[in-house]
Amino acid sequence: MKDSVIILCGGGPAPGMNTVVMSVSKVFLLNGFRVIGLHGGYSGLFSKNPRTEDIDFFKADAYFNRGGSYLQMSRFKPTDKDFEENFNLPLFQENNIKLLVTVGGDDTASTANRIAKFLEAKKYPIANIHVPKTIDNDLPLPNNTPTFGFNSAKDEGAHIARTIYEDARTSGNWLIISAMGRSAGHLALGIGEATHCPMTIIPEMFNKVEITLDKIVNLALSAILKRNILGIPYGTIVVAEGVFHDLDPKEIKEAGVTMTYDEHGHPELGKISKAVLFNDILGKEFAKLGLKVKTRPVEIGYDVRCQDPIAYDLTYCTELALGVYELFSKGETGCMVFIDSDGAAHPLYLHDLQNAEGKIPPRRVAIEGGTAQNYYSSICNYITPADYEAAKKYVPNPEDYDFRRILGW
Prior knowledge:
alpha/beta, Rossmann fold, seven-stranded mixed beta sheet, elongated
């Protein structure tokens, strides 16, 4: 029986999923392996009847440059009980599997490590190599190397936001854009900078003060007031969804926003549009201040996850896949594959990346770095002390909308 490789995809999609999976398939097929694709992410490993299929060259060649994921994905995360009662060990034994390739974020990587240890304890050691992906760009790869999918998502997000900005300019309105990014603001900042958005609000901005709803609202108003002073009655505001996840749930409720709550009393923000949420809150603030500003909400998220990868990710994902084969050939396991600026593959061992809780801490935007500071210093529009007198035409307390004062910068 041929040695086999099994591949699964966990979490949510990102441009380049198919490029990784099908490029891994091509290189292992070329070297005499059987390649098995597992549908349903980790749920397939804890099922008696997993949905699998062999991937041949023709399938790999047809799908390697497409968006989405040929292998159906899942956010299933096995419990200790699942390992004890439901793990499908015969799947590995009967198919002579030598390598588990996982494609996903930090949770997918951590679970891969658990599975490798479990199989080793069962006297069936198997190599596991993880390929890191997320459009959030929040995995801690060295030298600020992006995660695959991020650049393609940013490219499409910027295309959408550029069109939205033109609509704002054409109609004389403000459009409120929410961008994905639960823990970090990389995608939002990338979109904001690429489109010269006059205000981008990300969690990392609040490095010296606590995030509150008032501060988020006042940052948006700071841009709107400044542009009114400049005679520019339109614009866009990009907000990373992470700023709302960091808010005190009590604040959301007191703002009068209607939503569902989980069993712990926390607002289920994942079920609502952050753009609509923020637009509603802003509308109430405009009415309170007597400002006549028209706003419209736009969500950028699910529409950038399954697009075709741009050339950057087609190349990058191919190199990641070739790196998987290279690391496996060298006997590496329990690691993520990392491609340096010269295209060379290196292992990043999961135990080195994880904290005491077994989690991989997110990589956040370097808010004091050149990219962020140049954007906020030279592209954003906001109230400064020099604008106080002119701003009194619109608000009685312009100092409350002073960008640097709000953030304690």
